[in-house]
Design brief:
Strand content: 5-15%
Number of helices: 20
Radius of gyration: 26 Å
Order of helices and strands: HHHHEEHHEHHHEEHEEHEEEHHHHHHHHH
Number of strands: 10
Shape: globular
Length: about 450
């Protein structure tokens, strides 16, 4: 975006070098947030992440032209003068694995840019003090590292898991508690006030109804991952002080102990700490003390040294694939395969670290059968079915026998003629992703 220039932040950087003070001890963090360099980096990340428009309906593609006119003229001066007002976030709802709903909040592109710029400046201030056992939304840390750490904890003969479920964590974060935590590190009042405005910006649904946000941090905001780690850092420190073996990824965390009795004590004391100190709520129905093989962490469970997919993870996977291969979805096979492959690649890149080679083989077979079902459904008429099978190399009598069958589409998708015509090589040549092949690359490349 050409509205940026690099001269405005030079005096600030010179002062940092001259005084040797930590940035948090100076009163110009907001200027650092709005420096051309920081804004440019933030914009590149916002643009690459794409995302849906906010309530102003402005798209990523439309924003640069808007910024050319208004950034230097009004947006940046209003931010520096403390009169900028964030726009309410757009409400979006997604269904969770257990059937409940998760509320997402989509900021406008402009507010996404500003919040991303804030996060980039604040992260280096807080990051060095975060726990080594916190793995979510942090540089050079990943879900794979969190799971590996849990496996290392299990290797110390801690085979009992304390699963603590934070009930609607993002919706329940106490603003006063969070702002107090921020204020201990940030001395720039202007930046603190701006963050407070973002927390209180409110949410608007598709019907135009406005909802105040007196508590919580919006899921979907570029600031939320950092703010969530700041809130839960005190929990990490408390668990470390008590000598617990644990791993946390965002609001999902697990504690490993050696006995059921110890686990019950830990669950009770941690629940008390979370509710009293952090002003959050523990879901007592979902929290549990169980043998590690019955636990669930980041969609995985553990069976001795083996990492497995939790049954709910497989259920969700199959549910998504059924949607993408639904017989009533009136799209071309090319588009269907494109969307299915996108999901499969993302899923196996995340979950492929599990020791589930044979299950990958089984799921591949099930997915291919779902695709054959789609072809069979799309061909509809007997004449079309026979003609296409014959073209695919199925001998004439078998093609006619399959085409004239009155069996269900799902049953037919497993018959000899369809499997010969729409064979594995044919589907591979179409570009269908193989979970087995991806798994092998992840484990043996």
């Amino acid at each position: 975006m050409t509205y940026l220039n690099s001269s405005q932040s030079q005096s600030r950087d010179d002062e940092f070098q001259r005084t040797g003070k930590e940035p948090a001890l100076l009163n110009n963090l907001l200027e650092k947030v709005l420096s051309p360099e920081n804004i440019q980096i933030a914009w590149m990340k916002v643009r690459s992440n794409k995302g849906a428009p906010g309530i102003d309906k402005m798209t990523i593609e439309e924003f640069p032209a808007y910024a050319e006119i208004y950034w230097q003229k009004s947006i940046r001066p209003d931010l520096l003068n403390g009169i900028y007002q964030p726009t309410a976030l757009k409400r979006a709802i997604i269904e969770k694995d257990d059937g409940s709903e998760r509320l997402l909040a989509i900021p406008t592109v402009c507010d996404r840019l500003i919040m991303k710029a804030i996060a980039q400046v604040l992260s280096p201030l807080f990051e060095p003090e975060f726990s080594d056992y916190s793995f979510g939304f942090r540089p050079n840390r990943s879900q794979k590292m969190a799971v590996k750490h849990v496996q290392n904890c299990i290797a110390t003969k801690r085979h009992i898991a304390v699963d603590v479920d934070l009930s609607k964590f993002f919706d329940r974060v106490d603003h006063d508690y969070l702002m107090t935590k921020l204020g201990r590190k940030i001395k720039d009042k202007g930046l603190l006030e701006l963050i407070g405005k973002y927390l209180r910006a409110g949410i608007m649904d598709n019907a135009g109804q406005y909802f105040e946000s007196r508590i919580g941090v919006p899921q979907g905001s570029p600031l939320s991952p950092l703010l969530s780690n700041i809130v839960l850092d005190e929990l990490d420190k408390e668990l470390e002080k008590r000598g617990h073996y644990f791993a946390r990824y965002a609001d999902d965390f697990i504690i490993l102990v050696r006995s059921q009795r110890a686990g019950e004590r830990v669950l009770a004391s941690v629940t008390k700490f979370v509710q009293k100190q952090l002003k959050l709520k523990v879901n007592k129905t979902k929290s549990q003390v169980v043998p590690i093989k019955h636990s669930k962490f980041l969609g995985f469970t553990f069976n001795g040294k083996w990492l497995k997919w939790h049954p709910k993870t497989i259920e969700k996977f199959k549910r998504e694939v059924r949607i993408l291969t639904g017989r009533s979805w009136g799209v071309s096979m090319e588009f269907r395969l494109k969307e299915l492959n996108k999901y499969l690649i993302g899923w196996i890149n995340y979950f492929g670290i599990a020791n589930q080679f044979q299950l990958c083989v089984d799921l591949d077979g099930w997915i291919r059968r779902r695709i054959r079902l789609c072809f069979w459904k799309n061909w509809r008429k007997v004449k079309t079915k026979v003609k296409n099978l014959f073209k695919l190399g199925v001998y004439k009598d078998l093609a006619i026998f399959c085409g004239m069958s009155n069996k269900s589409h799902w049953h037919s998708s497993k018959t000899e003629g369809i499997n010969k015509g729409l064979n594995d090589k044919f589907l591979k040549d179409l570009g269908l992703v193989s979970l087995k092949a991806k798994w092998v690359v992840i484990h043996h490349s």
